[in-house]
């Protein structure tokens, strides 16, 4: 038994019927070598031999009575692999649009909280004998880094690897005693008063940021939340999801990065910003001021907290969609990000986790439901326009259950008031972009993905002219 941290549990509390807080990934894998037909049963059996390497995949939630404390993880004594790994055929011609529609449909379904919080859908019927795998994990059990690590346990660096299941069968765990869990929560309740100690710390941080903004650097850094312009996707969301995806060459991004002396993340933000500018212009919805993105930052290497899965902080970043020139936008983003990094370091890696551990379950859940049902996201200034997440992946060939991975497209959750999320992962010389959106707010999300290569071509041309 293991208790969820406040940050892990917050993804449960903030989830509603329309705001689904799981993350998805679409893997497209090559057909087996030498003309061998794909065998679903053999494919499905391999995860069962690796589950002992990934405890999160066999644990389910157990709620503390009256939600007096965060839930605990317990081993699922009735774990059923057949429930979690499913098979589906893609109707002919099995093209990109049909695969995107299926992925969006699966992303728009909630996970069953009485079972371990993951699913895997094996999709057959793609052209040229390829197979797709759509995986779905709740954010309470993965973040960008842990999700990648989890996937690595299911992948190998060479084909044909098969694991031998552990010799010992896990001993069944008794169900937690609810009376003891409730009593423990009552005993620990005085510790919740520690949240008042966060107030002076927070005030001190804000004071330091104000002083920095008044300094010689002119305040270049993070934009303030609630200052983003409103766009069509900054409204209350429905549960319906649309996705799009595109693969690019990482070498092109690195060439752009080197030519202009910026970071890969700067280039990613500039490319997404360019695609969004093109998209909003085509709809005559481009605001005069820049879009603002929330950019998750992994703090696994710097956090003092050892427990929990999600170790993440956030930076707010201008995408400078108000700048037409691709290079000028890139350089402006890079300059902003240098200041934003300094401000993020002032706030500290653990600020979000420190506050989240005091999250009262009932209050959070009631507030999330009220915010959703009353569509409050449409009644206050926009916090941020979208989420843009850049996740580092393995820079070598991978074989997912013995079949080579050709591409891996990630999709994070979308939120009320920010109905679009862009997630990017680097794998084996590629940079794979995944976009997910509320279908009613962004009915043509494929046009955003289609604009990505055009922006890269323009930046690459400018980079080569620079040299």
What does this structure look like?
This protein is of the alpha+beta class. It has helices spanning 6-13, 40-48, 81-84, 96-107, 144-154, 178-188, 198-213, 250-260, 264-282, 326-347, 351-356, 361-373, 446-466; strands at residues 2-3, 22-29, 59-62, 72-75, 85-89, 118-124, 131-138, 155-156, 241-249, 292-298, 312-318, 386-392, 399-400, 403-411, 420-427, 430-438. A seven-stranded mixed β-sheet has the order 5-6-7-2-14-13-8. The protein has a six-stranded mixed β-sheet with strand order 9-16-15-12-10-11, sandwiched between helices. Strand 6 and strand 7 form a beta hairpin. The N and C termini lie far apart (58 Å). The relative contact order is 0.19.
The class by helix and strand makeup works out as alpha+beta
Number of strands: 16
Distance between the termini: 58 Å
Rg: 23 Å
Give the biggest beta sheet. 7 strands, mixed
- What is the spatial order of strands in the main beta sheet? 5-6-7-2-14-13-8
Number of DSSP helical runs: 13
Order of helical and strand elements: EHEHEEHEHEEHEHHEHHEEHHHEEEEEH
